[in-house]
Each structure stands twice: as structure tokens, then as C-alpha cells.
Amino acid sequence: MEEEEKEKIIEAAVCPFCACLCDDVVISVDVEGNKIKEVRNACKFGVKKFLSPQNEGRLKKPVVDGKETDYERAIGKAVEILRKAKKPLVYGLSNSGYNAQRVALEIAKQKKGVYDITESICHNLLYPELRKGKKPFYYALLDEIRDNANTIIYWGSNPVESHPRHLSRFAVYPVGRYAMRGVLDREMITIDVVDSELKKLSSWFLRVNPGAGGGDAKIAEIMTRLVKGETNGLGELVEGGIDLDTVVKIADRLKKAFYGVIFVGLGVFSSENASKKVEAILSLVDALNKEGVKFVLFPMKGHFNVVGAVQLLLRETGYPYGVDFSRDRIFVPGKTTVLDVIERGEVDAALIVGADPYSSFPRDKVRKLCDIPLIVIDPFESPTTIFSSVAIPTAITGVETDAIAYRMDGLPLKLDKIVDCEYPSDMEILERIYEGVVESL
């Protein structure tokens, strides 16, 4: 009995690393020592995330102007910066719980500032294509895909590196209602510019030539023509080193699928001429469905709650990212997103939550960020915290504090606190900042 009290086993923890939000993780907790002893069923990234409270790299104390201080002074300084700002930027939030995202959005509203999330940089081009209204968006829950899909395409995506359990939990290997033998009842197709681990696992591998004429858009266009049975003049489309024989065979396989899915990754969304590529792949999915083949398109989301951030913005504003509350038209792609407002010098302060723009933004945008006061709320040290005016450490969401997060297919899941810590949650910090901002108005 005494031994049982010293150890706690959590049977179904939700992993807060990526947007898969794997909910079958088993964790052994040393109750007496308040630390995680063992993590099972998680990928290497998930294990690292759960064990991060015990590793180096934590932001240990609040910092103001390079000097350690207490929470009271750091929050006060943050409020002062936002109070003086005419148009602040609120950015990040994809590694925060849904309720923290709500508070951050309210801060941006109160200050008539810009609110943006990582989606505006990663998967931003999907939404404008959908808003054109030319094609429906064929979409499904991961559970439906697992149960029904027998043809899986990873296009510009390598989940072995980015979402290590995606294949085993949702797509290729698990047993499904119409895939009783798991991987034996499924075919996997990989379309990418480089060889990856997926090539060895795939039934078909099609290399994309990133140069002119042989890219993703052209391949999708050829497949769409083949699906529709339009073969006249097909030879005119074949250029840039496209392997037409493989394209024809893949298109034929797609037409015979019982249920298929195209998982589209940053290899498409973040590449040159991405808008044209996304439009072409959407056209392919639409053509397949019109031919009577059930196919869905699924963007491979990264951060564990980027979908929650998108859902919140859609509910509150009708737009998925990059809203500017100082404008009559609050959402104008190319004008209201984070990189745009930084480039034009429109924001005079920034509140960054759970993100590291100094490492991820283009260098010229980082230089411009250096010219404005920066408030960073984050559990970990980063180049952004080092150069910030105010850095405030928080608990790790999903490990040291509970929250709600949305899986990559939009399913909300509860993240539970696993161990105690001395840090407040990001939501608590944001609430105190919000209260200070409201009082100062």
C-alpha cells in the first residue's frame, strides 16, 4: 500500500507535443518526488515534452530589461508597455490552451491591435482558396479516416519526422472497419521533392521536380485530367522530368480507391507558388469525389493547439488568422498578418505567447522586431526571451497545468496536469495582464 502511494500511473494522458494529441500515453509519476519516472506509448518528441520539466532550458525567473525580478514587477511592466502602445501585436498561442487563447484575443481587442497565430505562416494559403467558393472542402475526422481509408497519400509531408505516430495511430497501420488487416489492406503513396523514410514504406513514390514545369501543381493537374478521362493533349502537360508512367498508375489507383485521403504538408504549403499547388490539389480531390470516389484533403497541422487557435478566431471573428482590430476590414491577407504589419512598422509593441519569432521569422522581420518593446510569455528560454523587454516564465501546458486543446481534425481534448510546479499558467499571466490593460483604458 505504501509503495502504491508513492507512485501514480496515468493510463490515458494526452500528449501536448503536436496536433495529433495522442491520447493513449501511459505515464508513471513519482508522487513523493513530484516527477515523471516513465513515459510509454509516446513518440520521442512526446517523451521529451513530458520530461521537459526535469531538463535544462527552463525560463526560471521573470526578467525585465535583462534583470531577474518577481512576477508582480514583470506583469506591471508588461501592462505599462501595452498601455503606452497605440497598436500592439499579439502573436503565437499555438502552444497554449484554448482558454489562454481567448484571453489573449481579448487583450488584442481591447487595444485595437493585431492578433495572429502561427497558422498565418504555415497553412495560410488553404483558406483563401476555400473562400473563393469554387470547390467544396472534403474533410473528415481522423477516426473516420482510420476506419475507412484504404488509399493514403502523403504529399509534401514526412510524418516520420514531424508526427511520428501519425501512421500508426490514424492512417496506415491501425486496424479499421474496412481495413481489418491494417497496413495489409491499405496502400500508401508518397509525393515529395526528396527521398525520405516514407519512400521505403510506400507502395508508390513519385518524385516532384521543384523546377519549372515539373512541380506539384502540374502533377495534380495531370492526375485530375486522368481522373476525368481527359487524355487528349495530355502529352503537352508532361514536362520538367515528370514520370508520366508513375503518374498514370497512381491516378488509376486513386480512381479505384474505396476511400482515400491526401495529407498535405508544409512541403506544399510553404513552397514557391504554393497557392497554385493548393488549388490544383483541391481540384484533384474535387474531381475524384465527382467521379464517385470518396476522397478527403487533410492539412498536416504542427503545434499541438494551432487548430484551437484557428477555431477560436473563426468563432469570434469569422476569419482564421491575422486580424487587425484597428481596421474596418479586420482581415486582409497580405496586409493584416504578422509579417505584413511588422514589415510596414505598423505595430509599436508585441506580446508573444509560446513562440520564438527570433528563430523562425525572416531576418529582416526580426530586425524590425528589435525596434519595439517585446513581452514574451513562455516556459522555456529562447532567442526571443533573451532579447525581450519582459520575459515571464509559465507552467508547461499539458504537463504542469491542464487545458483544452483541439486535435488536428478539430476534436477538442482535455489536457491534464501531470505534476505540480511553482509557475503560474500562461492563462493566469494573461488574465492579470488583461485586467491591468482594462484598468488603464
Description:
The protein has 441 residues and is of the alpha/beta class. It has three domains: 51 residues; 203 residues, 3-Layer(aba) Sandwich (Rossmann fold), CATH 3.40.50; 174 residues, Dimethylsulfoxide Reductase, domain 2 (3-Layer(aba) Sandwich). Strand 4 and strand 5 form a beta hairpin. The termini are far apart.
Offer a few descriptive terms.
20 helices; 441 residues; globular; eight-stranded mixed beta sheet; alpha/beta; 3 domains; Rossmann fold; 18 strands; Dimethylsulfoxide Reductase, domain 2
CATH topology (fold) name of the largest domain: Rossmann fold
- The percent range for strand residues is 15-25%
Helix percentage range: 25-40%
Largest sheet: 8 strands, mixed
Are there runs of 5+ residues with pLDDT below 50, and where? Answer: none
- CATH architectural label of the largest domain: 3-Layer(aba) Sandwich
Helix count? 20
Distance between the termini: 57 Å
Radius of gyration: 23 Å
Strand tally is 18
Average pLDDT taken over every residue? 93
Order the strands across the largest sheet as they lie in space. Answer: 5-4-16-15-14-6-7-13
CATH class of the largest domain: Alpha Beta
Structural class call reads alpha/beta
Total domain units: 3
Q: What is the fold's blueprint, element by element?
A:
Blueprint: H1 2-6, E1 7-13, E2 25-30, E3 35-40, H2 44-51, E4 63-64, E5 67-68, H3 71-84, E6 88-92, H4 98-110, E7 114-117, H5 119-122, H6 126-131, H7 142-148, E8 151-155, H8 159-162, H9 166-171, E9 187-192, H10 197-201, E10 204-207, H11 216-228, H12 244-255, E11 259-264, H13 266-269, H14 274-290, E12 294-299, H15 306-317, E13 323-324, H16 338-343, E14 349-353, H17 357-360, H18 363-369, E15 374-377, H19 383-386, E16 390-392, E17 403-406, E18 412-415, H20 426-440
Parallel strand pairs: 6-7, 6-14, 8-9, 8-11, 9-10, 11-12, 14-15, 15-16
Antiparallel strand pairs: 1-2, 2-3, 4-5, 4-16, 7-13, 17-18
Helix pairs in contact: 3-20, 4-15, 4-20, 11-12, 11-14
